[in-house]
Amino acid sequence: MIRKSMLLLLALAFSVIAVAPALAQNPIEVKVWIAFTDGRLDWAREKAAAFNQQFPQYNVIIEGYDNYETLFASTALAFENNTQPSVVQYFEAATQNALDAKTASGEPQFKPIFEALAGREEVNGIRADFDDIVPAVRNYYTIDGQFASMPWNTSSAIMFSNANMLEAAGVESIPDTWAGIEEACAKIMAMENAPAHCITWPNHGWFFEQSVAQQGAELVNNGNGRQARATETFIASDAAIAFVSWWKSMQDKGYYVYTGAQRDWTGTYNAFIAQNVAFLIYSSSDTTLITKDAREAGFEAVASFMPHNGDVEYVGNLIGGATLWLTNGLSKEAEDAALTFLLWFSNTENAAEWHQVTGYIPIRTSAVELLEAQGWYEENPNSRVASAQLAAAKPSSATAGALVGGFPAIRNVVTTAIENILVNNADVVETLKAAQQDANRILEEYNLLNG
Question: What is the distance between the alpha carbons of residues 147 and 339, in angstroms, rounded to a whole number?
Fold first, then answer.
């Protein structure tokens, strides 16, 4: 009898041992798609590995895509084929598209973060502290009083200057207005060993939007799409015409160089590092890399606010970057797995480290305080600029940023119009008016399908 009892206990023990590894080998999978294939993807995967170790019941898998546009298209196709991931990184211009996106059955493709939290202040011990999100990010992504997605990578358009070149040219301070840039460029281009050109930036709709906002103007109607759904664009506004006219005049003077390709981040970056230009207006997301690459190239890169139109009041700049969206229709267990990762991924320590590795601003006030305490900003003054620029913006519908359907397609209309102006000497006003008509058609068609 004793022998039979012992055998029964041993059998039960072996069954528990057999079941435990099986459970450990089948954690809940969380697929996350992001728009990076460089070191930023490596960093995200390192964090996912750390998360999986801390939460062995989950398995986060990060997949990278070449850019936001490719990821945007791939996600739409995945929903058609019912192969969508748990989490998708959407850039800020796709916010309205994400809010409106529906499955074939008419259900929303994404579930608002606040809805998934359902009033909970933590998930699996990870706090959901949205009051800690810095104001510029909170203002952009707060829709109807709530966060629809989880902030992650946030940037602003800032300027980098070749300090050595400015000193050689006798430029005593970094210019902060368009007129100041022209004066500095005149001195730089008069040097005996002048660079081929003075300044560059990518032909990307984001810089157009930044300059419009700087001048206090809206990109679309209805309070930049935040009081009601946007139904009209203002691509040919006075602010837009002023910026593009200045842009073209800088090219005509030989100061601005166009690489010949729309959205050419790499070409403009390389022109600055090769010292073919003295100024680069660029995304703050690469602040850490630009500072390092410039030092290795033998010069000091100094970051500053994006120059603005000195003839009108400076209102402030917009954010850029993206958030992480939770897909709809997940099981309760899978949804909590994704929520746990989203909250952990954006915690104070990770937000601070992400900023240090890249240059994206720390999205949490607590992360800024941590970096201050560590002496990071004192040792890396360039890293402070983007956060300071966003903090300096006056709260308004202009600086909150446009919320508009079909935004990615509208951006393409803008960059195509500007390329026509730069390459073919097309008239600024007439070209922007035609672009506005095209953009309005895109918006009208979008609203008919999604309004």
Answer: 13
